[in-house]
């Protein structure tokens, strides 16, 4: 970390201490301007090596006198602006600072292909795993909005997180069937990167690996991807990347299907 950044952090800490001592509460507009400064794109950043002190977090950078609820409320306001950069960056911060007060906002963002993953993970952090949060996850996973290539794996990543969370905790056993149903519905109807989710289901439910249920899912997914590929015309970079994803995924699916039908299929358990 260079000298200027260290001095900047020290100055912020001193100002925060002064405001706390004298009881000078900043206005919402002052906090909002501080948040925007924190979120502003800048060159460099990060630690130079492990011996450097960590960069200040938002709650350290902005003078809020410990009121993270107020910070979360203003972050939610910034996240609803029309500026794509500040909206997404504010959502990333809300994943950490958001409270139950922001749950209606997170619910409303669940079908946004760019912000939905952050919104759903925030709901899971605040509410934990329950029927409501799994249904919110379903609304994000099973949406028909077009996902850009940069976000194409977001839903699969969320599925893996949900399975790991639910199947690693004995206290969440009652939600295992619900969670698996949400993930399988997404896998069958919408997933364009099914290999990671397939591996995650096997990890959570080992008996799934050699089952008629898995074979039926794999066949359905492969047919859906094959049908979609007929309309892919790799005339630009985005489309070419989508074709690369398709080729990798269908190779995985074909190999998995061939492995299962070799048993033979009739001998596979349900």
Task: Provide a descriptive summary of the structure in words.
The chain has helices at 3-22, 28-39, 58-61, 68-79, 84-97, 103-108, 116-127, 131-141, 154-167, 176-189, 194-204, 212-229, 237-261. By secondary structure, the chain is mainly α. Helix 4 packs antiparallel against helix 5 (84-97) and helix 8 packs parallel to helix 10. The longest helix is centred in the C-terminal third of the chain and has 25 residues, at 237-261. Mean pLDDT is 87; it is low at 1-23.
Fraction of residues in β-strands: under 5%
Shape: globular
- Output the number of helix runs: 13
Provide the structure class.
Answer: mainly alpha
Low-confidence stretches: 1-23
On the 0-100 scale, what is the average pLDDT?
Answer: 87
- Rg: 23 Å
Main pleated-sheet profile: none
Percent of residues in helices comes to: 55-70%
């Amino acid at each position: 970390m260079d000298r200027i950044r260290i001095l900047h952090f020290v100055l912020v800490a001193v100002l925060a201490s002064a405001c706390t001592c004298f009881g000078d509460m900043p206005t919402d507009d002052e906090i909002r301007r501080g948040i925007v400064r924190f979120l502003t794109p800048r060159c460099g950043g990060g630690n130079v090596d492990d011996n450097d002190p960590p960069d200040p977090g938002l709650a350290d950078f902005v003078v809020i006198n410990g009121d993270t609820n107020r910070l979360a409320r203003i972050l939610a306001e910034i996240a609803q602006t029309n500026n794509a950069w500040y909206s997404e960056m504010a959502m990333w911060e809300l994943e950490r600072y958001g409270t139950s007060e922001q749950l209606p906002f997170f619910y409303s963002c669940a079908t946004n292909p760019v912000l939905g993953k952050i919104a759903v993970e925030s709901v899971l952090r605040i509410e934990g795993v329950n029927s409501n949060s799994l249904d919110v996850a379903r609304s994000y996973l099973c949406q028909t909005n077009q996902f850009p290539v940069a976000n194409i794996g977001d839903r699969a990543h969320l599925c893996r997180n949900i399975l790991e969370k639910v199947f690693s905790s004995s206290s969440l056993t009652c939600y295992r069937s619900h969670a698996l149903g949400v993930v399988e519905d997404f896998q069958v109807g919408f997933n364009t990167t099914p290999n990671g989710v397939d591996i995650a289901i096997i990890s959570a439910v080992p008996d799934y690996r050699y089952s008629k249920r898995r074979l039926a899912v794999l066949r359905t997914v492969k047919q859906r991807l094959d049908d979609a590929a007929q309309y892919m015309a790799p005339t630009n970079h985005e489309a070419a990347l989508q074709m690369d994803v398709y080729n990798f995924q269908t190779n995985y699916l074909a190999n998995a299907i061939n492995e299962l039908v070799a048993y033979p299929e009739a001998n596979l358990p349900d």
